[in-house]
Amino acid sequence: MAIKEHYFEVLDVLDNLFLTMFDGLSERFAHELSVVNKQFPFEPLKYLNPTLRLEFPEVGQRLLVLFDSPTASLAFNRSFFVSSATL
Description:
By secondary structure, the chain is an all-alpha fold. It has helices at 8-28, 30-39, 56-67, 78-85. The chain is flat and about 45 Å long.
């Protein structure tokens, strides 16, 4: 596979791959999963469909909101995100 326009093409392929695998495992192997669950209890796998995809500016803003409190660590200040965004 060649990337023709943007690396998001690869993310789309990987997204579809993992969603297909997770859906297929829970559908095709439901009986086996229930047998294993009796011996070793577990919760079913939970995932988003479609998968959440955040871009760098949005992640930076979310982290600024998260760490922009009086108890925030000095390592996560605004200058880190501003200098990283210009790289």
